[in-house]
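User
Take a look at the entry that follows and flag anything odd:
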Amino acid sequence: MKMFGFSLAYFLVILDTTVLTIALPDLRTSLGGSLAGQQWAVNAYTVAFAASLLTGGAVADRYGAARIFKIGVLAFGVISLLSAAAPHLGVLIALRALLGVAGALCTGGSLGLLPELFPDPAARARATGLWAAITGIALVAGPLLGGLLVDSYGWRAVFLLNPPLALISLLAMRKVRSARGHRLIDWGVQALACVLLGLLAEALIDSSWIAGLSALGALAALVFVERRSHAPVLPGGLLAVTWPELLAGVVANFAFSGALFVLTLLLQDTRHLTPLATGLAFLPLTLPMTVNPLLTGRLVARYGPRPPILGGLALLAIGLAGVSFTDLLAPWLVVMGFGLSFVLPALMAGVVTSAPPGTAGTAGGVLNASRQVGATLGVAVLGGLSHPLPVAATVTALTCACYGLAARARRTVPAVDSPGAVGLATRK
């Protein structure tokens, strides 16, 4: 029941990364706005989610994972109700940003609970596979339920899914408790991270050189403050250990979210499919995410996270190339779906296991922040290109090669001073 409770909350978080994409044409008809406004309706959530994930993980480590998880789930349900009643696009974008913050608290809390409920690394890897399978249903439900609800009731109905599911999650987790930790939080660093990502998204979506220069200034300030902080965002050595996984997370979500955005507009605006038909067209992509993570969890428990990550990135690149250069869609979407369902659970298991004691929430937050950065960049960059999918295929293939070289170079080198990290670093 506990596993179901926090998996259901992450289901909500992932559902909201995809469910609104299907509703974009109806949203445009109802509230108006430009293409950039539509991109911000999607990206306001992912930008705030990504920027707040570091804070969500740190807050969970500091104040107790269960407590922060419940606060995040409650806020998610309430803000969803407000989003359904948004009177115009600007209000919806603001509420989507707040929804992203609530999603970060849910995620930070749930990832902090994983090592508490499953202290054994092998059991945790299998539990991560089950968690990913349950939450992978959100990738199926997002386009499908979004299309069904938009066809029947309009875009506002997609937000009414969240409150009852949030209530069920809270009831399932009502008896779960977590002890407070001792991790300090530097709120200045967290604020700078939010500003940096927002400026970066603005620069990419609106081609604003002012926002681009401001983003460089925010990055310099973030590095300066982080290096002198009494409570840095990244625990010592964590980035050095996990940068290949973080890179893989960025690119996997870059490819997935960007391709979903581009293909949605293609199917509805060019091929004139209804929202429901578009959701059904994405089933070959999303269905593997409901079953394959169980296999991935077993593979990670037996062989470590790197083989599934390498294989998944390769499949994702092949699927993107197939969609780009053939007229077939469904077979290549299946290949992409299996690639993603190998990559994402393995990334989570590897990063959480290698984290120093007491920082699992922070480590999970760093990984999810990198993934949401990729999702934001995917919508912003690929949405503005004339040939987006070949670019996504090329970037993914290069990342696969880069990850393979990095994994080979560090195969026998322990990276973080923790038993879990040594076990992962020396595993063939």
Notes: The chain is about 80% helix and 0% strand. Residues 186-230 form one domain. The chain has a mean pLDDT of 78.
